[in-house]
Fold:
Amino acid sequence: MMSIKIPTAEEFIKSTELVVKYDDTQGCVLEEELRHVLINFAKLHVEAALKAASEKAVVHADEGGYSEFVDEQSILQSYLLTNIK
Structure:
């Protein structure tokens, strides 16, 4: 499995052209710009989570092999919330 480096929230914001107001010496972020940045950050994690789920899902079959089902917990545990920083 190839791991994709997803930036932290701080790294992601710094990679944009936004000027974030940390103190009175810098500019400020418009609400619409911040919304756009946060949506793009979330999309990175959703894509990574879906990829992880597709790679880590466990499929079980009954003894005769006639019926298969995906182990729900294998999907739910495939992308940890601690990945979002």
